Amino acid sequence: MKRMAETRSGRAAQPRLSESIESRENRWLKRFRAALAGEAGQTEGEIAGVEGTRLVETALRSGVEIVAVLFSETGAKHISRLASWIPPEARLLRTTDRLFASASGTETPQGVAALVRPRVAVFDDLIGGDPLILVLAGVQDPGNVGTLVRTAEALGATGIAACAASGIGTSNPFAPKALRASAGAALRLPVLRGISAPVLLAQLRVAGVRVYAACPDELSDGAANETEKKPKAPWEIDWRGPAALLIGNEGAGLPADLVRSADAIVRIPQAARARHLNVAQQEDLPAESLNAGVAGSILLYEAARQRGLR
C-alpha cells in the first residue's frame, strides 16, 4: 500500500492508502470485469467502466461520480499524475498486471481503469439556452454513436437523446466502445435515454424546437412523396434557431412516422458516382449512402457554421 502524491496545486494530498486485490473472485474486480465488458451501465443510474490513462483522466475531470479507480503494477506509475482528481470517497484499488488483464476490455491494457456513474439527464437539460440537439433513433453501432457524440460536443450541441425507433434501440453511449469513440464526451454532454422517439419529438414540438430528419438520397425521395416534404440540402435549412437533428438506423434509416413528424427532411447531395462511366452505367450502380457517423457530422458542422462557430 502506498500513499498518494502531491496535488497539481502543489499542496500535499491527504495521506491515503490503496486497497490490494489479489483474487479473480474479488467483488471489485468482478464489477470492473462486467463494466469493461459492457455488461453494466445499460440503464440510467448504473455504473459504466472507462479504461486507459487518457479516458480515465477525462472521466476524473468531467465531474461525474467516481466509484472506484483501479491500477495495475504497470499502471501504478500514473497514480501521482491522477491523484489530485480522484475524490476522497472513491475506492483506490491496486492489483497485479495479470489480474488487471483478466478484467480489461482491451487487447493491450494500460493498467488504469475507473468505475463511474454517468449523470442522469432529463428533457429540460437538452433545451436550455439556444438548443441544438442530436437525436439518435436506432443507431446501433457503438462506434457511430461515439463518433456522433464526440462531434456533437465539438460543434456546440447542447445535448444528446438516445432513443429506440420501431423496436430498434440505440447503442448505449456509456458502453466501453462508444465511450472510447467519443473520447469521453458522453460524460460531459447531457445524454437523455429511456424515452421513445415519438414522445421526444412531441416534447420538442411543444418546446418550439424544429426537428430535421436526415435521410439518405435513396430514402429521402420516397419519404418526400409520402410526407409531401421536399428534401433540402444542409445549407437550405436554417439551423440558427432551436433545432434537433434526427439520425436513424444505419441500414433501415428513419421510420416513416418519424419522418412525417419532422419539420423538414435534410439530405446531403453527393457527386455522381464513377464519373468515367456513362449515364446508363451509373444508373446500374447501387446507391451508396454515407455512414451515419459521417453524415451526422457533416450536418452538425453546417449547423455550427450557421451559428457562428469560430
Summary of the model, kept short:
This protein has 310 residues and is α/β, with parallel strands linked by helices. Helix content is 33%, strand content 18%. The strands form 2 sheets. The chain has a 6-stranded parallel sheet with strand order 8-7-6-10-9-11, with helices on both faces.
Q: What does this molecule look like?
A:
The chain has 310 residues and is of the alpha/beta class. The protein has helices at 27-36, 53-61, 79-82, 97-103, 123-126, 142-154, 176-181, 197-206, 217-227, 256-261, 279-284, 292-306, and strands spanning 19-20, 48-51, 65-71, 91-94, 112-117, 132-137, 159-164, 191-196, 210-214, 243-248, 264-266. The strands form two sheets. Strands 8-7-6-10-9-11 form a six-stranded parallel sheet, sandwiched between helices. It has a five-stranded mixed sheet with strand order 1-4-3-5-2. The chain starts with 18 loop residues before the first strand and ends with a helix.
Q: What is the CATH superfamily classification of the largest domain? A: SPOUT methyltransferase, trefoil knot domain
- Spans of 5+ residues with little confidence (pLDDT < 50)? 1-15, 220-224
Count the strands? Answer: 11
- How many distinct domains? 2
Helices, by number, come to 12
CATH topology of the largest domain: Alpha/beta knot
Described by the principal axes of the CA atoms, the overall outline is elongated
